[in-house]
UniProtKB/TrEMBL annotation:
The chain crosses the membrane at residues 35-60, 72-93, 127-145, 157-183, 204-224, 244-264. It comes from the Bacteria. This is ABC transporter permease. The keyword tRNA processing does not apply. Keywords: Membrane, Transmembrane, Transmembrane helix.
Length: 276
């Protein structure tokens, strides 16, 4: 009986966020032509990136010692994480609008998590296109490399993608939190959020050592795909800064996400104290 009461209580707590998500999806689907056009744009964007990588592989054979199949696998991990982030954390990209238009003031009046409300109100179905493309890229890489998907490897893949989602989602929350202090953050957003993919399209090992250290310890996006790929592809981890790093995608993701929640709380307290 107590378990049923607990489940009902959890559903009641989640119900407002689910309703906000439904409203977001319905508003998107009102303009189906625009929605479909945007999906095709996403597909075209990824195909263009794949074409660039393909041209480089066609000319050099490998990129930093990574074969075409391994590059496809590396790219698939990036797209899988990006797909989830695009769906769940889309609200962080236009959070400055919430501040400028006064929408965030209304969110503060509700007995709900402000972050949860922003994420639910901007839930983006187009993230599913990223996921489908990521799955297709993973299947393609699996065929090229003849990967055997054991239960342990599948579990590690899921944890690695989850870690990548937490890292990229956490970065978006941190950048969005800047709006509590500055209102606008577009320049920082383009510099940090949108340039991230460019770094992760290629093995981090092709960059000079200081950049590798930066992408590992200061801005740890290398854990999104580069490090876990070493485990999943049985690559030599001894070439890394530290072999143990290959196993830390999920723990690092948790740390980044927890840090992002702290940034959000600090920013929200500052915003509330200004009386905005």
């Amino acid at each position: 009986m107590s378990a049923e009461v607990t489940q009902i209580g959890r559903w009641q707590r989640l119900s407002p966020y689910i309703q906000l998500m439904k409203s977001s999806i319905q508003s998107r689907m009102e303009y189906r032509g625009t929605f479909i056009a945007f999906l095709l744009t996403i597909a075209g964007f990824y195909l263009a990136q794949i074409a660039v990588i393909g041209l480089m592989l066609g000319r050099f054979g490998t990129i930093g010692g990574w074969s075409p199949g391994e590059m496809a696998f590396l790219y698939s991990l990036l797209i899988l994480s990006t797909g989830c982030v695009s769906a769940i954390f889309s609200g962080m990209l236009d959070f400055s609008e919430f501040i400028r238009e006064g929408t965030f003031d209304r969110l503060l009046l509700r007995p709900l998590s402000t972050l949860g409300q922003v994420l639910a109100m901007r839930f983006d179905m187009t993230g599913l296109m990223h996921l489908l493309l990521g799955i297709a890229a993973l299947a393609f890489a699996t065929a090229l490399l003849d990967i055997e998907w054991t239960a342990v490897r599948v579990a590690f893949l899921i944890l690695s993608v989850a870690g990548g989602v937490l890292i990229l989602g956490g970065v978006r929350i941190i950048v969005a939190s800047i709006c509590f202090f500055t209102v606008r953050n577009e320049s920082l957003q383009h510099l940090i959020v949108f340039s991230t993919r460019e770094f992760l399209m290629y093995p981090v090992s092709i960059y000079i050592r200081p950049v590798q250290i930066f992408l590992t310890f200061l801005f740890p996006i290398a854990f999104v795909n580069f490090y876990p790929a070493h485990v999943l592809l049985n690559r030599d981890a001894n070439t890394l800064i530290a072999p143990a790093l290959a196993y830390l995608a999920f723990p690092v993701g948790l740390l980044v996400f927890i840090a992002s929640l702290y940034f959000w709380r600090v920013g929200q307290r500052h915003y509330s104290s200004t009386g905005s």
